[in-house]
Amino acid sequence: MQLVVYRQKNTNRTGLLFEDHVFDLASILADDKLSTMQGVLDDWPMVEGRLFSLKLEDGIPLADVSLRAPVSGHGTVFCAGANYRDHSAEMAALHNRPPPADPHTLGEQPWHFIKAAQSITHPGATIHLPSESQEVDWEAELVVVIGKSCRNATMKNALEHVLGYTIANDLSARDLSRRNAPDGSPFKFDWLSHKSFDGSLPLGPAITLAKDVADPQSLAIRLQIDGTTKQNSSTSEMTFSIAEQIVHLSRNLTLRPGDLLLTGTPAGVGAAKREFLQGGETVVVTIEKIGTLTNLIASRA
Predict the structure, then answer these.
(1) Considering its fold, how many domains does the chain have in total?
(2) 245 in helix, strand or coil?
(3) Residues 284, 292: contact at Cβ < 8 Å?
(4) What are the beta bridge partners of residue 173?
(5) Per the omega criterion (within 30 degrees of 0), is the bond before 205 cis?
(6) Which entry of 22, 50, 133, 252 is 20 to 30 Å from 111 by CA?
């Protein structure tokens, strides 16, 4: 059973996806506030308590609806940087540096940046690359969806605040990441242009509930472009675990329902081989137990 946002008759509604059928959540729970994902997030403990006693009837065949991004624009998007051991080693080799030490041994903490929520786009959407960039890269990521407010979480209870998991492709305009400023200038790096252009966050297609993912730190993760595998790894390669990331973030601020945590990307990004997305390509991200996210890259004008 997964949570989705689906579109039918020009209207978006929340639903349960089960055995290739979508069941309207507001209808089966008799509460129209649950017709939006924000409504579900705002009352998640109640919804979660009732989900598994539901009698599912009158489902809509999945082929008859269009799935939308399951969470869109309501919370903050936190992104973990350099959080896979294989990816860190790959980038170190690219720059002729030795493999990095385990940051735990150096007393370091997870590192995050924020991506604009309005950059979220839908499964199946066509992505228009920014005209000013020639180096748009791919990054397959497991996404944590926060379901319960969380401040000062502990390693013991951090995952209790997770509603579920979905998939993202954190598209990155590598050639827009640095401004024309002197080396050492605090204004050298441009994370906004690099990470938050329109359509730079394909998300979905569904949220797999946390209770259905026994160990989120042992999921196969793969990205393919036109059938060629570019990334093929496991979430076991994360430097800082999901729980560690939640603990770190919640020390600084309250995580709220609908916040998203992109947990990092494994080895195989385009920058390592100087390969970047081209118009007409199809990008497919698959994560074990979570699903498959597919998007087409538009041809440049």
Answers:
(1) 2
(2) helix
(3) yes
(4) 136
(5) yes
(6) 133
Same domain for 125 and 42?
no
Residues 127 and 11 in one domain: no
> For the residues of 23-40, what is the DSSP string, one character each?
EEHHHHTT-GGGGSHHHH
Q: What is the pLDDT of residue 190?
A: 92
Dump the DSSP string for 130-158.
Answer: -TT-S-EE--EEEEEEE-S-BSS--TTTG
Paired tokens of 141: 């990521």
How far is 34 from 122, CA to CA, in rounded Å? 20
What is the residue-averaged pLDDT of the chain?
Answer: 95
CB-neighbour burial class of residue 11 (10 A; exposed 0-12, middle 13-18, buried 19+):
exposed
Q: How far apart are CA 127 and CA 122, in angstroms?
A: 10
Is it the case that residue 53 has pLDDT exceeding 90?
no
Amino acid at 243: A
> Pick from 46, 201, 84: which is nearest to 138 by CA?
201
Helix H or strand E segment including 2? strand 2-8
